[in-house]
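Hi V.,

You were right to ask for the full record rather than a summary. Here it is.
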Amino acid sequence: SRGLGDVYKRQDYIFANGIKFKNDVPWEGILRVPLKEKNKILENLMIKLGKERDEVVVIGDTKYDLCMFEIAGTSIAFNPTKDVANKADYVIKKRDLNELIHIFENY
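Predicted structure:
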């Protein structure tokens, strides 16, 4: 939810906060994903798409993502704090999204 909306425009469903620019300067945040309500957004999307828990993978790095870990069938902690790593099914300790490929190849 950290402002990736513009990066992944080709996806069907992206829920991310954003940034408004003023004269090419980051000016104001756009809140689309309330910090403590990520689970609600995920639950609504699962209902809309008719997906069960075992069909859902989430990626998070902070304690505010743990509510999604509880709902999803698979959770991935990406460069997380220790408390988040302990709750995840998979942990990526590098700041390298390519590491996700190894998980999904074996998924």
